[in-house]
Design brief:
By secondary structure, the protein is mainly beta. The protein contains ten helices and 33 strands.
Length: about 700
């Protein structure tokens, strides 16, 4: 199409956009890049907040997997790894690991379109790197029109003007290429047909597909693409495309939203009632003698254990009850605290006025909450009970043990415990898009020498799967700290972890850990860590240092010759805004490179979490590995999102970050911040709505 033709097509679209119509009434759909769009072209539509989707795409010139996440109501993020066919030579593919971002600048209204600014392969000038500004408007209830202006790949067909010289494609980290070079118009239409869940699409593409045509047999015959998408319920969508006048493609997308559980929630027993004490209640404390106190603690501990609340320490006086508890059942900590306070109000003598409840993570006490019984009685079933109860609760960092005389301690019980269970590691984010998956049998055993000192063993037997099967021989010029990972993917039993671990609190806000032995599948040695994290503060500082040696490929008890010293200083910050948390780790990585890792995550009140990270080190782009810098995404889905009862269990799936020697860290099973995370006042405030549930 000529420049004049593209301008004419754009004028038609813009004329349609100027009509006064209703706001969009049908759900956004994905394009062939796995993000919200038309086909190859983007649009300005967005999904509901928190919506998370995984897509497998194959459009004739490329194939891969994409994780799409509505990071915030006006920010969409997509992490994708695709294999571009015949890119550098006939039959040779290029695997691109990319991050796409789209920012909605203006929401759609009666007279105005939605407007968005977007970046494909953000901060990297890779083969698909593009920048664009796009407008989208609904026409009635079933038509959506889009027009936009693109640079980079999206400015390569029939450009209308230029904004300078764009650097050659090199995948290097930078921003000088952004909005540089030729710019071209694109546009399209989406029609929700009278057939339920069926959407038809057509677009004019501004992508010339120059790289794909250089060595392969593919030829772009037309700038027009056509597609159809059919949704099977709210979690599965299928799409087919006819593109470039010569190719057929398809896409499969799976979706879920943290705010929309699959099953009805909380079908278990409700909380205990709170019966207020009469005005003339007895304040007599003569009952508080050691024999009675200990017997009361025994009975209370047994009763709470049946509800998944394990009392580790306790102390009851005539006016105060203190408990150190592990919550093994409830996904949200305020729910266990609120239900426990109700039980205490109905089962303790009326003279007991103060309840001090301390949340523990394993053997580590974290946050102490002081609740006055009179406040509980006055607030229950009252308006504003939620904010009032948070305001009247006292929060503080917990000491390692309850101070004072006559402290009740849980009996040690079985020192040795073990379990055998299936394990299904998944890597959805690889170039073939189909993902890699294993079925393993995993055995864990623990011997508790004391509350703080444990011996831990994890052994894995691979039953079947393909993780690591597609990895070739590593040619990395760096020490092969991760790029030989396929050599560790053996069929025989492997010792994943065999460690002696000591965890303690050195002060109410200071945690410490030392681990020694076979720390992970590829490395063994000694790792020490300190964490300063006050319970009433939304940020903390950490330091970690380790001396490690590389293990044999059979992952049993032998070692190779490579050894190194690695360590990091870390900053953790819970912003308290929409569940966003940031983490910065700066230090020396396993391959001896120096640099930093930035992690941004969003946690929802029900435990869903999506976290993305990026690592930059002093290793050159040529030597770093695939993608030139490390980046990836981690998705955590709690079981209670799919189950009709409370559970603290979850499954985690990782996307990307496999096999790079640059920016590689130890995989430590019990780092301190992840262990205690979620118990500070910022987290408790965000989930405090569960206190009265």
């Amino acid at each position: 199409m000529s420049v004049r033709g593209s301008k004419a097509a754009l004028s038609v679209l813009l004329a349609a956009l100027s009509h006064s119509v209703a706001a969009q009434d049908f759900a956004p759909s994905f394009g062939s890049y796995g993000s919200i769009g038309i086909i190859d072209m983007p649009n300005a539509a967005m999904q509901p907040d928190g919506e998370t989707s995984w897509s497998f795409i194959n459009n004739g010139t490329s194939a891969g997997g994409v994780l799409n996440f509505q990071l915030l109501p006006n920010i969409e993020a997509s992490a994708r790894i695709i294999s571009l066919k015949d890119w550098t030579a006939p039959g040779v593919a290029f695997d691109e690991n990319a991050l796409d971002l789209k920012f909605r600048l203006l929401r759609e209204g009666d007279l105005r379109p939605a407007i968005a600014l977007g970046f494909r392969d953000f901060l990297s000038n890779g083969p698909t790197a593009s920048e664009y500004i796009v407008a989208t408007k609904s026409i009635g209830d079933n038509i959506r029109l889009t027009a936009g202006l693109g640079w980079g790949r999206l400015g390569s067909s029939n450009p209308v003007f230029s904004t300078g010289t764009r650097p050659p494609v090199d995948s290097a980290l930078g921003y000088s290429h952004m909005f540089a070079g030729d710019a071209a118009f694109f546009g399209g239409v989406e029609w929700q047909t009278p057939i339920n869940n069926l959407i038809l699409k057509a677009e004019y593409s501004s992508d010339a597909y120059t790289g794909e045509q250089a060595f392969g047999s593919f030829t772009r015959k037309s700038p027009f693409n056509f597609g159809a998408e059919y949704s099977l319920g709210s979690h599965l969508a299928l799409a087919a495309y006819y593109t470039y006048g010569s190719q057929f493609g398809f896409r499969v997308s799976f979706s879920g939203n943290p705010n929309k559980p699959i099953t009805p929630q909380d079908l278990g027993a409700g909380p205990a009632p709170v019966n207020a004490r009469p005005a003339d209640y007895s304040r007599d404390v003569s009952w508080a003698i050691p024999a009675v106190q200990n017997r009361m603690m025994d009975i209370l501990s047994e009763a709470l254990a049946e509800d998944g609340i394990i009392v580790q320490e306790g102390r009851i006086t005539g006016t105060t009850l203190e408990l150190y508890i592990n919550n093994n059942k409830y996904a949200r900590q305020p729910m266990v605290v609120g239900r426990l306070a109700r039980v205490l109000a109905g089962s303790t003598p009326p003279s007991v006025e103060v309840f001090r409840i301390t949340l523990m993570s394993g053997n580590l006490p974290t946050t102490t909450m002081e609740i006055k019984r009179a406040d509980l009685e006055a607030q229950v079933d009252r308006p504003n009970a939620g904010p009032d109860s948070f305001r009247t609760t006292g929060f503080s960092s917990a000491p390692y043990h309850i101070a004072g005389d006559n402290v009740w301690e849980r009996e040690t019980g079985k020192r040795f415990s073990w379990r055998i269970s299936p394990n299904i590691p998944v890597n959805l984010f690889n170039a073939n898009g189909l993902g890699e998956i294993d079925l393993n049998l995993i055995g864990t055993a623990q011997y508790r020498v004391s509350d703080a000192f444990h011996l831990n063993l994890t052994v894995t037997q691979k039953l079947l799967g393909n993780i690591g099967s597609s990895a070739g021989v590593s040619l990395s010029p760096l020490p092969h700290v991760r790029s030989d990972s396929a050599l560790y993917a053996k069929t025989g039993p492997v010792v994943e972890r065999f460690t002696a671990d000591f965890q303690t609190k050195l002060a109410p806000s200071l945690y410490g850990r030392i681990s020694a032995g076979y720390l992970e599948r590829m490395f063994g040695g000694v790792d020490a860590e300190l964490l300063w994290k006050p319970a009433t503060q939304n940020w903390g500082l950490g330091a970690e240092i380790a001396y490690v040696k590389q293990r044999d490929f059979n992952a049993l008890l032998g070692f190779q010759s490579y050894e190194t010293l690695t360590g990091f200083a870390s900053l953790y910050w819970n912003t308290g805004w929409k569940g966003l948390e940031a983490q910065i780790d700066v230090g020396r990585y396993l391959a001896g490179d120096w640099g930093g890792t930035f992690t941004l995550s969003r946690r929802f009140t029900n435990g869903w979490e999506v976290a993305g990270y990026m690592t930059l080190t002093n290793v050159s782009f040529a030597d770093f590995g695939n993608g030139n810098f490390d980046k990836g995404i981690r998705l955590r889905i709690p079981f209670d999102w799919t189950l009709p009862f409370e559970s603290r269990a979850a499954t985690t799936v990782s996307f990307g970050g496999y096999g790079n020697d640059g920016g590689a860290r130890l995989n430590i099973a019990n780092r301190l911040y992840p262990t205690i995370r979620g118990n500070d006042t910022t987290d408790l405030y965000e989930t405090w709505g569960a206190y009265w549930q």
